[in-house]
């Protein structure tokens, strides 16, 4: 996406010697404008961003479980009719403790290299193999120990085997094995994607996301150290204290464990507060990663699917002319206006596609979050029913009730796990399930909450609340929303409306003119043909009129008077300043067609020129896509050769058929990518400014030699 315009300008240093551009320029001064397709970007975002964050979050959790698997023996002696709290530990063989300690050390080293890689202290190519191999070695060690422990290696002959139970340490080893294998496998995909060239050999993470692993380590250290302190203060078993700390920090509060000493109650005040705040920071970072950062990537994939379906439907309908460029006649003088009208309709069609994709993306995120939440709820209920069957005789329904109460942090306390497997699994399950509940609630606010709010406003508009529209229109909108668009499908913002009746009247407020700033920057007397007249005209109110008032943008009237050289550079600097302000705005900027036409004109595109526009096909096979991209590369090469030879008109060098063509509704449109519109425009304006300055400098350098 990034390159349908930006890539059409090759670096001057790539041209041959003798063409007017020296080879001494460094290649980094004109970075290539590369960018994956929307579908590819969304797919590989998981491997480049999401998988490393998941590994950075769950890797320390797995090591924390390894610590829990090491601090206590794996078996306990439980005589009949005794509780698990009174069961005595049976000492493990020395070889089990040594191997367990070795795998923990290897896992800690792996986590350390992953942390150093995220903080950019160790290179990706060095840290990732060490992390992946280390975690897989931990998996092998733990699987071997668990297999030997389940066999006759730990069985003694003094007491009956029925008097022995597995301790919480044994089950923590199982949960650690699962997590180590999961995070190592995720990083394998990340490393393979980087090695295959789908993205750079580095994590595509922001600064705050790179600290997520460190936040997780601090939280787990707070939980484990706090459990050690409270186990000593309250005379609890250490692993029971870990279970209590987890229940406390997640604000579930079953009541099966509670501090009774004065010291324990006094320590609870800072411990619970710090733990809850640390947990909230981690959940906020995860939510930001999944909802905020992943939104653009997921939206690009959803939009691409919606775009293909809409294009197919439009191409097969009687509205096919909206996607067909106007034929250029040799003697025609009114070609620009019809082509501009068609491009405006095409642009509005893409805007409607974006709106549909945005709605679908929000609901997709909600249903995915709900599916994960329900899966963890049902799976947790099943495991708890198996763990507590021998101790509390829980049925599946009772386990489901307990899981639901715990997942919503209600915590009545009528049900609480008492077995070693149940308590250890609750710690493992809560670290996954409770954050998912928070993300689900956030997603519900963007979807269900928005629908309820809109329905309430619509219902009020047809009853007691005043509305801007008349009663009939408000009633139709209400029925349209309640029937999910099945009734009155053409009454409210459909694609058909935009195609038939054109876009709505523009209400955008014109931005301030840059004339005063440009005049202040000019040195000496200006020629009468400077861009000041153009800029004055381009920023007058007529530039911002609605499409039905002035279908021909003002910049088209001044094509022959468009600035060049220093004047163009000044104009580009001024526009870059304005777009940079748009990026800093809290709300994402969405530009209108007139604004896009102006910015495209600045970077060398003409919305009124049908020769650079193509007709979308209903079904485009892979060979056609490759052929289109191959023709685009040929056009770029011809354009650069024409400029190197000092020729201004491209068609004299390159056939019209070889000129790269694009459409507002194809996959190369600036509205189809993962970048925000302001970011895309800013990057292209900066690239154009670099090219303009380079061409001006080269012209000045060649002037003395030509005069001589």
Automatic annotation (TrEMBL):
Gene3D superfamilies cross-referenced by the UniProt entry: 1.10.287.70
GO CC annotations, alphabetized: plasma membrane
Region (Disordered): 1-37, 496-517
Compartments, record wording: Membrane
Entry keywords, A to Z: Ion channel, Ion transport, Membrane, Transmembrane, Transmembrane helix, Transport
Membrane association type: Multi-pass membrane protein
Protein name: Potassium channel
């Amino acid at each position: 996406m990034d390159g349908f315009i930006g890539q059409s300008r090759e670096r001057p240093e790539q041209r041959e010697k003798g063409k007017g551009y020296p080879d001494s320029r460094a290649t980094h001064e004109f970075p290539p404008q590369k960018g994956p397709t929307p579908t590819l970007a969304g797919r590989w975002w998981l491997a480049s961003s999401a998988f490393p964050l998941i590994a950075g979050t769950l890797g320390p959790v797995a090591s924390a479980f390894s610590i829990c698997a090491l601090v206590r023996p794996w078996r306990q002696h439980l005589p009949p009719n005794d509780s698990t709290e009174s069961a005595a530990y049976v000492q493990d063989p020395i070889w089990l403790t040594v191997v367990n300690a070795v795998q923990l050390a290897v896992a800690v080293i792996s986590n350390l290299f992953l942390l150093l890689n995220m903080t950019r202290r160790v290179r990706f190519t060095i840290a990732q193999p060490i992390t992946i191999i280390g975690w897989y070695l931990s998996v092998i060690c733990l699987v071997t120990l668990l297999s030997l422990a389940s066999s006759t290696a730990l069985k003694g002959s003094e007491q009956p085997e029925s008097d022995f139970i597995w301790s919480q340490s044994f089950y923590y080893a199982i949960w650690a094995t699962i997590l180590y294998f999961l995070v190592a496998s995720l990083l394998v995909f990340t490393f393979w994607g980087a090695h295959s060239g789908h993205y750079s050999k580095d994590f595509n993470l922001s600064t705050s996301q790179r600290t997520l692993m460190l936040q997780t380590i601090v939280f787990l250290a707070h939980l484990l150290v706090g459990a050690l302190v409270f186990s000593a203060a309250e005379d609890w078993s250490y692993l029971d204290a870990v279970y209590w700390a987890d229940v406390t920090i997640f604000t579930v509060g079953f009541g099966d464990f509670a501090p009774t000493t004065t010291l324990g109650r006094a320590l609870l005040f800072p411990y619970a507060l710090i733990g809850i705040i640390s947990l909230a920071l981690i959940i906020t970072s995860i939510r930001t990663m999944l909802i905020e950062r992943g939104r653009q990537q997921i939206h690009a994939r959803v939009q691409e699917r919606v775009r293909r379906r809409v294009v197919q439907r439009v191409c097969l309908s009687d509205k096919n002319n909206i996607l067909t460029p106007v034929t250029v006649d040799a003697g025609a003088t009114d070609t620009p206006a019809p082509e501009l009208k068609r491009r405006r309709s095409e642009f509005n069609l893409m805007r409607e596609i974006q709106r549909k994709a945005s709605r679908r993306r929000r609901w997709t995120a909600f249903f995915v979050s709900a599916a994960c939440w329900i899966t963890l709820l049902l799976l947790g209920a099943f495991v708890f029913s198996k763990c507590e069957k021998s101790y509390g005789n829980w049925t599946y329904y009772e386990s489901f009730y307990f899981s639901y109460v715990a997942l919503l942090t209600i915590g009545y306390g009528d049900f609480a796990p008492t077995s070693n497997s149940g308590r250890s699994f609750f710690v493992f399950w809560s670290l996954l399930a409770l954050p998912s509940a928070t993300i689900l609630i956030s997603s519900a606010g963007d979807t269900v909450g928005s629908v309820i709010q809109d329905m309430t406003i619509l219902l009020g508009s047809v009853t007691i609340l005043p509305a801007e529209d008349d009663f009939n229109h408000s009633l139709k909108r209400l029925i349209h929303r309640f029937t999910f668009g099945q009734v009155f499908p053409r009454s409210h913002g459909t694609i058909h409306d935009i195609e038939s009746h054109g876009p709505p009247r523009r209400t955008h407020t014109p931005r301030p003119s840059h004339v005063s700033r440009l005049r202040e920057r000019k040195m000496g007397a200006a020629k009468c043909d400077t861009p000041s007249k153009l800029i004055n005209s381009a920023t007058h109110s007529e530039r911002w009129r609605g499409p039905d008032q002035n279908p021909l943008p003002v910049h088209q009237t001044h094509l022959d008077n468009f600035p060049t050289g220093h004047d163009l550079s000044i104009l580009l600097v001024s526009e870059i300043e304005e777009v940079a302000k748009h990026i800093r705005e809290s709300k994402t900027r969405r530009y209108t067609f007139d604004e896009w036409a102006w910015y495209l004109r600045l970077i060398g595109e003409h919305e009124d020129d049908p020769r650079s526009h193509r007709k979308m096909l209903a079904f485009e096979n892979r060979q056609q896509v490759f052929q289109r991209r191959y023709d685009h590369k040929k056009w770029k090469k011809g354009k650069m050769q024409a400029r190197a030879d000092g020729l201004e008109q491209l068609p004299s060098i390159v056939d019209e058929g070889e000129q790269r063509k694009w459409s507002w509704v194809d996959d190369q449109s600036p509205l189809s990518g993962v970048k925000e519109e302001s970011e895309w425009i800013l990057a292209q304006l900066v690239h154009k400014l670099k090219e303009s300055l380079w061409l001006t400098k080269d012209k000045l350098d060649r002037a003395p030699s030509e005069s001589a």
